[in-house]
Design a protein that fits this description.
With about 260 residues, the protein is α/β, with parallel strands linked by helices. The protein is built from eleven helices and eight strands. Strands 1-2-4-3-5-6-7-8 form an eight-stranded mixed beta sheet, with helices on both faces.
């Protein structure tokens, strides 16, 4: 596979859709950024600026996210993992360091565990915590929350900051994440990681959490660190889940640098 070192922005076809991809090019270590569940590649701007041009930065918007990525019949987690391979293949990248925030951290953990020969390392930003946070009551809360948000989400879609997915699809994606985050599901994935893995952990709440729910979820990381010497805590920062890439981008960039 030939590696294209030129900067490039365009659409990458995959399955029944196409993804908006940006590649800064250059000979530096390729870093692939994996977004939050309903976020866009623009969230990584401060991290990329902090790291600078000595790295090769590859970002993309997942299915139906951002302004350009197309809709799909498949918004499953496995589709998200396939999209990692599709983007890397399209850009001719054989081996990359994956950096994921929130939902993207779970995608990064699964991809790195399945592809140890292709992963230079993984930086997981306030996500991929093994914890049984999904029960029947939480599932109902999720469905109710997205149903209530359904009336105004279409108004924001032209800006690219909300997905082109209906409330049922948004809820199902979030519920699937809860199932994948169960200790019985995610802990074996983390235990199998054979590449350097660093966590940058936020403090406080996230969208939809109550009280200290999010801090209890983060405690699920302790066992993974104790069992797997490849996994370390790079930083525990003061910003909350939603603000971490904006306020503590330097801590994320430092964790990326630690990989090399």
């Amino acid at each position: 596979m030939m590696t294209d070192l030129r900067a490039w922005t365009g659409m990458v076809p995959v399955d029944d859709t196409a993804l908006a991809v940006t590649d800064t090019g250059g000979p530096g270590v390729p870093v692939l950024y994996l977004n939050g569940q309903f976020a866009t590649q623009g969230y990584w701007r401060r991290v990329i600026d902090e790291l600078g041009p000595q790295w090769r930065h590859v970002t993309f918007d997942e299915r139906a996210r951002g302004r350009k990525s197309k809709r799909s019949a498949d918004y499953s987690f496995e589709a998200a993992v396939r999209d990692v391979d599709a983007v890397l293949a399209a850009r001719g990248v054989e081996r990359a360091l994956v950096v994921g925030w929130s939902y993207g951290a779970v995608v990064a953990a699964h991809w790195a565990a399945r592809n140890p020969e292709r992963a230079a390392g993984a930086v997981l930003v306030d996500g991929a915590f093994p914890y049984d946070w999904l029960d029947d009551a939480m599932e109902q809360r999720i469905r109710t929350m997205f149903k209530r948000m359904g009336w105004f989400l279409p108004l924001l879609r032209p800006t690219g900051i909300t997905p082109r997915m209906n409330p049922e699809q948004l809820a199902e994606s979030n519920i699937e994440l809860g199932r994948l985050s169960r200790t019985s599901e995610l802990a074996p994935v983390l235990d199998s990681l054979a590449v350097p893995t660093r966590y940058v952990v936020a403090s406080g709440t996230s969208l939809g959490s109550r009280g200290n729910e999010q801090e209890r979820i983060r405690e699920g990381l302790d066992g993974a660190i104790a069992r797997n010497p490849h996994i370390r805590l790079a930083a525990k920062v003061t910003s909350n889940h939603g603000a971490i890439l904006r306020k503590d981008f330097r801590a994320v960039a430092d964790a990326v640098r630690e990989m090399v």
